[in-house]
């Protein structure tokens, strides 16, 4: 499964009067399980998780004094801690609104997540049959309510000089960047993402499309990664002169998807398990 959600409930009242009702906690737990089920059945999530074995795990914590919320990247997985005030759900009556609020909160987190990373996951989740019927009968979707700021932590990009040294030493999948441990590989791909963003102009895309025809988002991403794989000098040339990209695609093996195409592999570089 490409996405999993862990929902934890911390009772700051230690079971005394005034704490979140057990019914609310049970509804949140049950709705989280439904989110997991739907994500496992949804084609969009299946495609996303199947790409380089991506995974997104979100923990939702309820407490009286919530700490900061954050998303962090670790190897090929994203982890989120969403810390909410217990009263965030207690203001709602027990019923479909509890599940609708949880789904809206998760969707809001996914939206932040999708803006922060290059490998965007789906940003919407299904509503249950009961929730849809309740809304159709005139029920009001409470939305996510007031969410705390969500901090996104990513690995710092590898220094530029070190990055290009590795690219120049990478001639196949047994050399150069492919020898990096995973923590350094994460820094390498963080720098890679910044470099391909600088090639994402309308002029560059037009020249690529003129020789390739229709460009899907994945193909366009891989084309730009292939430019980076050709080294710093060629990358800077293409960045400054978009027309060169069309010529490269027609004449260079790096764009044919064959054994000389290292672009996609570098873009999703996993690194080794050693530190």
From TrEMBL:
Residues 180-268 form the DUF4240 domain. It comes from the Bacteria. It comes from Calidifontibacter indicus. InterPro entries: DUF4240. This is Uncharacterized protein DUF4240. Residues 1-22 are annotated as: Disordered. Pfam families: DUF4240.
């Amino acid at each position: 499964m490409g996405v999993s959600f862990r929902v934890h409930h911390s009772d700051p009242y230690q079971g005394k009067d005034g704490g979140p009702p057990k019914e609310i906690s049970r509804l949140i737990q049950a709705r989280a399980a439904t989110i997991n089920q739907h994500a496992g059945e949804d084609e969009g999530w299946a495609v996303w998780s199947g790409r380089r074995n991506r995974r997104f795990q979100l923990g939702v914590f309820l407490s009286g004094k919530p700490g900061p919320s954050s998303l962090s990247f670790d190897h090929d997985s994203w982890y989120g801690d969403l810390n909410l005030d217990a009263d965030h759900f207690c203001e709602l009556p027990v019923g479909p609104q509890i599940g609708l609020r949880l789904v809206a909160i998760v969707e809001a987190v996914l939206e932040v997540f999708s803006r922060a990373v290059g490998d965007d996951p789906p940003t919407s989740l299904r509503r249950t049959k009961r929730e849809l019927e309740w809304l159709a009968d005139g029920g009001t979707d409470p939305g996510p309510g007031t969410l705390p700021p969500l901090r996104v932590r990513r690995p710092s990009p590898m220094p530029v000089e070190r990055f290009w040294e590795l690219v120049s030493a990478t001639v196949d999948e047994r050399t150069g960047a492919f020898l990096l441990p995973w923590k350094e590989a994460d820094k390498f791909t963080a720098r890679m993402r910044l470099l391909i963003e600088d090639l994402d102009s309308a002029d560059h895309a037009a020249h690529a499309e003129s020789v390739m025809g229709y460009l899907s988002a994945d193909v366009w991403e891989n084309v730009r990664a292939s430019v980076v794989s050709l080294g710093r000098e060629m990358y800077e040339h293409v960045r400054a002169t978009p027309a060169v990209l069309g010529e490269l695609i027609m004449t260079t093996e790096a764009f044919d998807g064959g054994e000389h195409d290292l672009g996609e592999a570098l873009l999703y570089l996993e690194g080794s398990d050693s530190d």
